[in-house]
Amino acid sequence: IPAGIGKVNADWMGSLPSQLRAMPLKHLAVPGSHDSFTFWVDVHAPVGPDQKAYVKYLATMFSVLAKKVMVKWSMTQNLTFREQLDAGIRYFDLRVSSKPGEVGNEIYFIHGLFGHKVRDGLLEINSFLSRHKKEVVFLDFNHYYAMEEDHHMYLLSMLQDVFGSKLCNNCMVENVTLEYLWEKKYQVIVFYHHPLAEDIPVMWPGSKIPAPWANTTEPNKLIQFLETTLKERAKKGSFHVTQAILTPRVNTVALGFFWGLRNYLVERNLPFIMSWVETQRPGVDGVNIITSDFVDLTDFANIVIKLNNLLLCEHNHKPR
To answer: What does the alpha-carbon distance between residue 112 and residue 78 come to, in Å, rounded to a whole number?
Structure first.
């Protein structure tokens, strides 16, 4: 396991002081990871349906070469799922797809190239949660590719089969505190951005977890965007995701061809982005869930979790 990442944060929610357990989760700082399942990419799978035509063209032109480039660009997380949970990550940004041409309704995690079967990932989360009863995860299913109604029904019933009574019912966001979740033995909040989930009580709508996306390669523009969207955060009714993420462009992919996403965009700019994160505060009008690329490059999770101490100082200095 890379330096600074171990099991130190495996039980961080359960270890929070009592004042914070009683606070709505929308006011706590929670570390998340972006395109969470890209730590394993199947080089032999067909190019995923989320890619633009130019990549498909590349794939036919230089079959193996193009896939190698895409592996570089889509490996935005280096830790396995369980390692991310042990490191303290509690929010996962998920994109899923069927494999076109494959018989049956199997669903896979995707970011560029196909990764794991969704079921395997969910089982891995579930076994972590069964061992760590006071930890809670947010699973944000926000992009679906090559999925018909049957695929959605398959995935929706899989989520209910795997997590069962750990699934939190969709309710008022302001009521969701750790104390409330522990009392009900809820450990999983699933956001399912699709109308087919609307009538299922344990599926939360995407509108309750806005995640504005800066879509820029420039750190200054990213910070400006994050600050503006935090100021505009709704006062009631939703969690909030701050995506501290730089996005590769087509020409950046060409430029970064030999370096890969990691060296080209991330290592250069991560210190700048992390120092911005360190100056944030959770609470009303503050940050909530923060996602970043490469959770193994910094003690990102530690930095985000520690922001919650600011709420304690505030709490202790309130006039009696």
So the answer is: 15
Beta strands in 48-112 (DSSP E): 91-97, 108-111
CB 49 within 8 A of CB 145: yes
CA–chain centroid gap for 187, Å, is 16
Q: How confident is the model at residue 114 (pLDDT cuts 50, 70, 90)?
A: low
Least confident of 60-74, 85-99, 165-179: 60-74
Phi, psi of 141 (to 5 degrees): -85, 95
Active-site residue flag, 194: no
137-145 and 113-117 strand pairing: unpaired
CA dist 73 and 247 (Å) reads 10
| Catalytic annotation present for 111 | yes
- Of 27, 44, 111, 132, the catalytic one is 111
- CB of 138 closer than 8 Å to CB of 91: yes
Active-site choice (27, 34, 152, 240):
34
Written as one letter, the residue type at 254 is: A
**Residue pLDDT, tens place only, 238-294:** 999 999 887 766 555 555 554 555 566 667 777 888 889 999 999 998 999 999 865
pTM, entire model: 0.85
